[in-house]
Design a protein that fits this description.
Helix content is about 65%, strand content about 15%. The chain contains three helices and eight strands.
């Protein structure tokens, strides 16, 4: 997929992005690793047949990651993506200027991962061939079969592959949980912002209601006073004011009643907004509950990953121990083969005499 004759210091693909690392304490927040966008490049190491992602900020390397077939690059937004590096025990995040740059990096990551898988397969085949050549006798010795160590070796490799698959599956679950966690956190922040706005509007509305209640009480008193004046004028008959004054008082009374009706409608509207505020509070409480459940789920996933990593470490130690035993058995076989060759040559010389 990529030419293997490239020099070790020649990049396969380069782009510019803002580099982040996950906070080791919270495992949720991002810590900027660079103050501005830096070059992020894919390299091929021909001596070790491995692919690397390297980024240098200033005088130090902020990314030095060996790409393995088990890695997965996840797009968490239109311009942001992340992947986990178990060897460095961290998660890298890249923020791009455009969505196209993110897509190009994601496609290149998939290609490099496939190439790393092929390179690992070729490396394992080469190791098997070298092992077979080492065990083979230099001068047609008798064929000897040692099934025990080989069976142990294959069982160790199978267990290693199974543990790696389980670890990758749990990491994928944790990545999905982190994405859901970030989505819930964003939703919670949005609800909190809306809640703050509604609280401010409610306080303002309550203040207006109190003011309008005072005005309403004053209007009611003015209305009662005017009604008493009209009734008094009607009772006194000719002694009261003219019909023109009565009409003016009646019109003022009607205007006050219309104003009271309008204020009542505004109070009803504010009460309905208060009901909407309670609904938003309920939605916020539900989002907080979901957020806490997601935190508990992430904690459980992190615990399972730690257990899996511990099991994988134990398996690797067991495999190293068995490799040592196999190497010791190979050395013993070489000595036995050499002794048999000496015995054969002695017998040949004895027969020739």
């Amino acid at each position: 997929m990529f030419p293997h004759h490239r020099e070790r210091d020649q990049p396969i693909f380069s782009t510019r992005a803002h580099v982040f690392q996950i906070d080791p304490a919270t495992k949720r927040n991002w810590i900027p690793a660079s103050k501005h966008a830096v070059n992020v490049s894919f390299f091929y190491d021909a001596n070790r047949s491995v692919y690397r992602i390297i980024s240098v900020g200033g005088t130090k390397a902020i990314i030095n990651c060996t790409v393995t077939p088990s890695m997965t690059f996840t797009k968490t937004s239109q311009k942001f993506g992340q992947w986990a590096d178990s060897r460095a025990n961290t998660v890298y995040g890249l923020g791009f200027a455009t969505e196209q740059q993110l897509h190009q990096f994601s496609e290149k990551f998939k290609e490099v991962k496939d190439a790393a898988r092929l390179a690992r397969g070729k490396s394992q085949d080469k190791e098997l061939v070298n092992t077979a050549l080492t065990i083979a006798a230099p001068q047609s010795p008798p064929v000897m079969c040692v099934n025990g160590p080989e069976d142990k070796l294959y069982r160790s490799q199978s267990a290693d592959i199974t543990l790696s698959s389980e670890k990758e599956r749990i990491k994928k679950m944790l990545s999905e949980g982190s994405i859901c966690d970030m989505n819930l956190e964003a939703e919670l922040f949005g609800l909190q912002d809306s809640n703050s706005k509604l609280v401010a509007a409610l306080h303002e509305a309550n203040a207006n209601v109190e003011q309008w209640k005072k005005q309403l009480a004053a209007y009611q008193e003015e209305t009662e006073r005017l009604r008493e004046q009209v009734a008094d004028l009607e009772a006194h008959g000719a002694q009261g004011p003219s019909d023109l004054l009565k009409d003016e008082l009646t019109q003022s009374l009607e205007e006050l009643e219309a104003l009271l009706k309008a204020k009542d409608e505004e109070i009803h509207i504010l009460q309905s907004k208060k009901a909407e505020y309670h609904e938003m509070e309920h939605a916020r409480d539900e989002a907080i509950r979901r957020f806490r459940e997601m935190e508990m789920r992430n904690a459980e996933l992190e615990r399972r990953i730690q257990n899996t990593e511990q099991n994988l470490s134990n398996s690797l130690e067991e495999r190293d121990r068995m490799d040592t035993e196999i190497q010791r058995a190979i050395e013993i076989l070489d000595i036995k083969i050499f002794d048999l060759n000496d015995l054969r040559q002695s017998l040949v010389k004895l027969l020739e005499k």
